[in-house]
Batch of 4 targets.
Target 1
Amino acid sequence: MKTAAEYGGPVSGGGMAGNASSGLVDRLDGGLGDAIDDRVAEVLDDYIAEGRLDGRIRPRRSPAGFATIVAGGVAAVLLPWCLILAATLPGTYQASHWKLAWVGLDCATAVAAGLTAYFLHTRNSRAILTAMAAGTLLLADAWFDVSTAAPGFDHTLSIAEALLLELPLALCAFLLASRELRRASR
């Protein structure tokens, strides 16, 4: 093993920092340095024997690297798309499958709420996902109820429904998901 002088480090003198680094190097030159070298060699041997270290160099990636890129890309594309839609969509539109759209949205909300109840009853952590889905569907339901309602009584009823039912239930679903997430992470 090389000494501090062979590495070009201070051997003695050089003030307080020189003495401290010299003392540390001297200790590493002794048994402590050899013990560290031996332990590192053992760990590397274990990694190689288990196939976890095969000598190939792999690029560093964050655990959610690809998902982060996709989510960022979706946001980057959708924001300008919203501006295009706001400028080009007609003020009114005759929907061919109006019943199917509303029945489908309400059925999806009911399924998400039912699954949340079931998962809560069985103490399954999937309740977090279904509660988030139910809350999101309730927000979408409130949004489309209010924004597609005809002026007058229908619009007033949609606003009342959103304020008294859908938005409070969505908030409860999000709070429930948050509580369950904290419970699951303990």
Note: The chain has seven helices and no strands.
Target 2
Amino acid sequence: MLRLWPKRLHAGLFPDQCWLRTPADELVRKIPLGAGDAQGMLAAFDALLGEYAHTSKGTCTVSLTVSDSVAAIVGLPWQDALSGPEELDAYADACFEQIGQTVNDGWTMNSYFRHYRAMGLAYALPTAWLDLLNEIIQTHGMRLDSVLPVTAAAFGRHRRAGNGKTSVLILRETNRTSALVYGASGLVDYTMEPTTKRGPESLSRLLRRLAGAHEIASVADWSADSADDTAWHELITACAPKAKYTRVKRDAWS
């Protein structure tokens, strides 16, 4: 009997839109303004999977990148004394508590360090939300492979500049902008700025804060909106005029 590998689909789930990248195409469903909360995103994704399942054949697995707004995220300063997974999780809990975020049994948490002596990252997703997401995917005859908040996906897969200078990765969503700052040894800072109705002002505020703390040599810019225009490029260049600018593709970490 000939065994066929299941098709692997990559999807994104964000407050203003969700998308599904298939072997042949990319399906996108816009989410109405005000309807992009955690449950609204699931409803839109359910409809999007229905569109694809209606025309597809065979088994599919789905890897998801989701909005940071669904998750709790915190940077983990390096600790030499951590000796195992249990101590790491306890340390991550303590870091969450320091920012006023309680991560209890209702959350599914993961925490790790990518580089020796560099900052790590912990993220948690609501377990009930994950269960519902898995149920939706199974309803359409598919299997959930992985779910990562976009900051966690970037932290695990982004290739920082290899020149030892400070580089910044900007992650822009409609309701928030996050930044990962890298030095010679790896991650040195993680920060986030909520996006108000004046989105450019929020990004400017974040960049000014980073420029005051770091000598930025390069900026990589990612957006959940693949149709984003050049205005953001101009704004970032104005806030960090000496930094080299690079636009990161939306599917860079798929």
Note: The longest strand covers residues 7-14.
Target 3
Amino acid sequence: MMKTRYFESHKLNLSADEKEYYLNDEPLKVQDSDSTKKRDYTKSEFDTEISKAVSQFVNRSFEHIVLLLGAGASVVKNEEGEIDPEYGKTVAMIAEQVLGQLSSKKYKLPNFNDPSVKISTDVFTLEEMAKDIGYCDNIICTNKYGKRLDPQFNLETFLSRLKTYTQFVKTDQQKWEDSQNAIFDIIKQATSYEYDKSKFKHKALINILSKKLLPENKLSIITTNYDTLIEDAAESMNYTVFDGFSFSRTPKFDDDMFEWHLSKHVSNVKTRENIYKKQVIDLLKIHGSLTWRRDGKDVIRLNKKAPGKTIMIFPSSDKYMQSYEEPYFELFARFQDLLKQPNTLLITTGFSFADNHISRMIIQAISHNPSLSTLIADYSLNPVDPNKNWEILHDMLHDTYPIVFLKATLNEKLTDYLGGIE
């Protein structure tokens, strides 16, 4: 019977099947208080074992904590256990939205000067584009739910080809540009949602991890997401966020802002001490944000509904090249520096390690920084088709690198495991 892995390090493996819970493949038993016999663990007791294992790994007086949030960190499950489409979506879900919204061959593009004004324009369907750019002649399959995208359809690869094709196409050039912009707009809309404290657990995670650090060491949060969930959660708790933008009336990007702390002098009889403000975090949005706009040579931060072209790295296989542009280059370089710090804990959640650029950066840091400990939290530790980076990390775990895998998502069990036992 196939076991589901819940926690794995090079010494400890907690797993379960439909009948029992296991520690290193041995059934977990506990003495029954009402008899001399031992009984099987309950789900609650098994969760306690997971919390203990996580606690032993993360509660080691780390000087620095780096939290990496991927797309899965914004995903919320509904009562049926399905992904709630009102909130975070997978890339596959966004691709289905693109398919549906372009099927009429019309799309209302927002006016960049006034997003409330929509301009109806002619567009190609996703099927037409896929065929014309040489991606695939047939991207549709039929199942019990009707027409769906083929499971092998890769939105990132498709967009890479589309962007290249659109640059050189001669016929229907405007229609091709409008079709591409329509896809980008659908992605923006699909990743824009409001913070709901009853659904998201970003507040709890920020609080738990911040309390594990001394006030002079800020929690560093790295995210590939465009949404504003971290900013909204932080604001609701009166946290101060250093996101690389100035504190001016119109915030401008200035990488040097991350070097600053908030502190005050306190006069004593013999000396003057510096007291650092608590509840301060660094936020690096390495793929851009719904709130970023270009203003001449500057990158500024506005309300996400403000006019102007949003600065974002859209899904594509050339994300690596885009990361060398401003302000992404500065953010990636700073992320790399954070991983080189001594006595650092890296926690990833909702990140699949399919992004080669970021994954290789992390793998290299684990290989060369012996004091970097890494906790990888994901919705499944039994992927059907693990990517190469996932396999490398799993091999490194068995080579006794300080890595653990945890079956948990941000909006379900992660905060319980991290905060359950202090």
Note: The two ends are 35 Å apart (CA to CA).
Target 4
Amino acid sequence: MAEHSALSEALQALQDVSEQELQRSQEQQRNQEQAQGKQPTVAGLKVDGGKPWDVEAILFDKDGTIIDFVSMWGNWSELLARRYTARLAAKGLLLPKGIFPSLWGTSLDAAGNVCAYDRNGPLAMGTMNDLNAIAALQCYKLGLSWGESMQLVRESKEEADRELKRRKSAIPLAGVVPFIEQCKKAGLKLGIVTADDTEAAREHLEWMGLLPHFSVIVGADLVPRSKPYPDMLELACQKLGVAPSSIAIIGDTDGDMRMGQAAGAALCIGIANQAASVLPSADVIIASYSQLVVEEAHTEG
């Protein structure tokens, strides 16, 4: 136990040093820009006509925030489930009927298609490694070795990914494109922080023609810890050259909100057309992007 405690303390010390170095790097970059006569561009972000929040950048979650979640991941989860169950059946193994929705946090309509999702469930908040492990565990429970289980899941995922790429099932969330255009016109820096892998996120944004709008994309594969830890947001801020305290984060899960709070973001905006209880850590909750307005930009200094 003493060794475990010492290891935990060492890891925490390393994390503290890393955060201090990140803060120093951000401050140095800001000082250099000011020395060169470059003042930060700041714009007022208003929610429901309230007081403007001065921000230099906005970071977005991707799925459920930029992309309509059900059209993308509902589709993908159905593709994977069909291939996964077919591979199991070929081995003479059957899953309990209707198990996938309970495993990944989705709801099905009368036709058996994904129609809704749990904003705080595995499909919405988990990394690809998380989802692979959940699916592989079911194979293991049916008698396959862990190696066989992971192989079956990975091969099923690869097939589902190829079909999703062929379909390009990414649809922008209503109102997000005009809002992004507002942000760019005001000179705000924009970035993506997603539990998805970075290259997959870039590809999905490219399908919709939105990739050029974002200066940085940080996926779960680029950081030691995914949401709700602050690692992704801090890395994105470092790449953008801004302090976390000067950005707003927009997301559809409480993991996004907790990430923003842990990093010290100026404003954590939840987007959900449900009760506020689904995003208890949000500073504010909007039902649509029409509730956000970006005011004319100005420079600090």
Note: The radius of gyration is 21 Å.
